[in-house]
Amino acid sequence: MNTIEKLRESVINFQIKEVPELTKKALEEGHNALEILNEGLIKAMEVVGEKYEKQEYFLPELLAAAQSMYASLDILKPLLAKSGKIEKVGKVVLGTVKGDLHDIGKNILKMMFEGANFEVIDLGRDVPAEKFVEAVEKEHPQFIGMSALLTTTMLQMKEVIEKLKENGLRDKVKIMVGGAPVTEEYAKEIGADIYADNASEAVRIAKGLVKISG
Ligand code: B1M
Prior knowledge:
Layout (H helix, E strand, L loop, with lengths): L2 H10 L5 H11 L4 H21 L5 H25 L7 E6 L7 H12 L3 E4 L6 H11 L3 E5 L7 H12 L7 E5 L5 H7 L3 E2 L3 H15 L1
Parallel strand pairs: 1-2, 1-3, 3-4, 4-5
The structure holds CO-5-methoxybenzimidazolylcobamide.
């Protein structure tokens, strides 16, 4: 097993202590930061996502793997920024809707999107509809992703879609919704484009749509 493969295994098995060492070793061996990101970290997070969907991994494992990925990414980030070579696959604006303070799921989504090489604009939690609208105007993302954990706050998702319509922005962006109380039926009812049950599914769908639109 070469060093990048070892790094990949360490992220998949969340051996966080080994990750910085292996990252530095791979760099010393002459692998560049982009190669380590693509062949090591992104591939590892894809495997982690699959394991989560197959229920071989649950949330603690997902978080531990994501943290392990960040332990490597922290070392690579300055090098990647310098080389200017990370061509992002797409841009996504994320936020937990107004009135809702639950952001753990949204943060996992953020890590998974970053791991898949998307640029993520994170609006945080308790985000009013106007902020989503402003972000679409300013950032021109391909996707906005809204998270809600309360049956009361999921109604805010409709509000965001209505505000985007009022501002003539609805067709400029694909709208993705998720969170424990949100269902596929609800997503359809409010006119969202994408419903995802979990973070890895969200990223998989977004990656697929980016490929189709070229
Ligand atoms: Co609260 N809470 N909470 N809470 N909380 C729930 C959600 C609840 C189900 C607990 C319960 O009663 N059994 C319940 C909601 C009931 C309902 O509306 N049906 C509840 C309640 C009532 C409340 C308060 C009202 C309690 C009170 O004050 N009386 C209050 C509300 C505060 C507010 O938001 N205004 C409250 C507060 C809190 C804390 C602040 C203490 C804390 C949040 C801390 C934080 O997030 N920083 C908290 C927590 C931790 C929970 C539970 C225990 C765990 C939620 C969580 O983080 N899960 C939760 C009970 C439970 O779910 N078992 C509960 C882990 C997370 C990774 O999962 O966010 O579902 P989740 O994300 C998943 C998927 O849903 C999906 O991907 C993620 C992972 O793959 N996903 C998306 C999420 N967003 C997505 C977006 C997408 C696609 C997929 O596309 C854009």
